[in-house]
Amino acid sequence: MKKLILGMLVLSFTSMQAWSQNMLVLHPEKAETTINKNIYGHFSEHLGTCIYGGIYVGEDSDIPNVDGYRLDVVDALKELKVPVLRWPGGCFADTYHWKDGIGSKEDRPSIVNVHWGGVTEDNSFGTHEFLNLCELIGTDAYLSINVGSGTVREATEWVEYVTSNNKSPMTELRKKNGRKEPWDVKFWGIGNETWGCGGDMRPEYYADIYRHYAGYVRGEGFQKVAVGPSSGDYNWTEKVMAGLRGKYHLVQGLSLHHYTLPTGNWGDKGSSTDFGEEMWFKTLKNTMVIEELIEKHLEIMDKYDPRGNVSLVVDEWGTWYDPLPGSNPGFLQQQNTVRDAVLAGINLNIFNNHAGRISMANIAQIVNVLQAMILTDGPEMVKTPTYHVFKMYNVHQDATLIPGDLLTEDYEYEGEKIPALTSSASIKDGVTNITLSNANPDKTISLECYVGDEKYKSVTGQIVTSEKITDRNDFGENEKVKIENFDVEKPKDGNMLVEIPAHSVVLIQLQ
Ligand code: AHR
């Protein structure tokens, strides 16, 4: 029977091939892997106006707030269904001493934020403020421990302060500071970019340091994440995995950081708003590399850990452009266009399709920094095109991945090419969700989808796109890039033809 179904699928695939260049064949019979909702995770750092001004304005602010958190941002984040939020950095985390950020605000010391613009950090947003925010917006917390300039004692005390129910100096201190019950923190990262801003270590040295810290970071109900590679640094993965071999009670995740720069050059990355087809193409080409990075790092991880005890945690990803003209270069402020929307769709499709080994991903960063969901300017707030793609893709959170075979034409630009379409699909509560992105800036692509024999009663669609590839949402203007309805015809005999507009991201739901 199984053979017959497979044979029919192959037949259907082959007969479609005769008349269509673009085909997606879903395999609902192979749906078994859960897409961890944390793939839709976010990252917040004490950097520029991510925290101060963006999330937290203080109780005395004229900007409407609850306990100092801006109401507009809180509402937008609740609507987004943020599953997990990483904090306090980034590079900032390895200069952060958590005890500076607890207790009465007047007594908290001010420090210099050495990595990000040399501005004063008054520590008014600390552990309580962050963890209470997570509770307010219904998200899990992912805390990054200071390894670069911290101590093992500082780390163990932080974990005790936050998570312990026992009587101890740290839990007493927490109670004195107004919090009786521990918080439920599900993830602790041990260091950040220890190959760079977090201590400039060699991988062999970091693997030992990791074992040292992780052995003392004790507790139940949370996972520990080791610092993994930057982009294609396979040597780092080799050495760290070799150093942690067999120590799987100490490590559950290995991070990967990969940023997309249009030019691929850190000196002159490219503008977030002012670009033509050349930079559009290069940006999308550079982002698609992440699939190869994921597969190659996983290959190395599987060599040392064939049972897959350690999962991949892509805890920093997204676009990194030149700072907006006139902004503080240390604040990493950029705008967000249709290009970022399509890029987010591509990355999220890739992560979904590797859900068996990717347990979390955190786009950088949630508000006002890099590829942000939300931008604020004083009392004003806008939701970016990336926000809308995340919102549309939320249907995949904790859904079961439906594997698919995608045949796509290329999008060619000046002799170079990339796949025009990317896709992923899942099923949850009886609803089949298919997400697609079209990287071609000018061409509508017809896609033949084979969705299986199920008799669907309804088909609905949503789309994020806009007239121009540079369109964005800006302060004081009508929202140009947002989720809109998208017409799709019901499948006939399991086949469905979808016309995917140029430079768009689409969701199709079958029920
Ligand atoms: O997200 C901005 C910075 O990029 C982070 O602080 C650091 O981890 C990475 O280099």
Topology, pairings included?
Layout: H1 2-17, E1 23-26, E2 41-43, E3 65-66, E4 69-70, H2 71-80, E5 84-87, E6 111-113, E7 119-121, H3 127-137, E8 140-145, H4 152-163, H5 169-176, E9 185-190, H6 203-216, E10 223-226, H7 234-244, E11 253-260, H8 277-304, E12 311-319, H9 338-353, E13 358-364, E14 374-377, E15 380-383, H10 385-393, E16 400-401, E17 404-407, E18 410-413, E19 416-419, E20 421-428, E21 431-438, E22 445-450, E23 459-465, E24 482-485, E25 495-500, E26 504-510
Helix pairs in contact: 4-5, 6-7, 7-8, 8-9, 9-10
The protein binds alpha-L-arabinofuranose.
Alpha-L-arabinofuranose is lined by residues 45, 89-91, 192-193, 316, 364-365, 370.
Question: Mind explaining what this structure looks like?
Answer:
This protein is globular. Helix content is 26%, strand content 25%. The protein folds into 2 domains: 2-32 and 412-510, Immunoglobulin-like, CATH 2.60.40; 37-401, TIM Barrel (Alpha-Beta Barrel). α6 packs across α7 (234-244) and α9 runs parallel beside α10 (385-393). The strands form 7 sheets. Strands 2-5-8-9-10-11-12-13 form an 8-stranded parallel barrel, surrounded by 5 helices. The chain has a 6-stranded antiparallel β-sheet with strand order 16-20-21-26-23-24, covered by helices on one side. The protein has helices at 2-17, 71-80, 127-137, 152-163, 169-176, 203-216, 234-244, 277-304, 338-353, 385-393, and strands at residues 23-26, 41-43, 65-66, 69-70, 84-87, 111-113, 119-121, 140-145, 185-190, 223-226, 253-260, 311-319, 358-364, 374-377, 380-383, 400-401, 404-407, 410-413, 416-419, 421-428, 431-438, 445-450, 459-465, 482-485, 495-500, 504-510. β12 (311-319), α9 and β13 form a beta-alpha-beta unit. Alpha-L-arabinofuranose (AHR) binds at residues 45, 89-91, 192-193, 316, 364-365, 370. Alpha-L-arabinofuranose (AHR) binds next to loops.
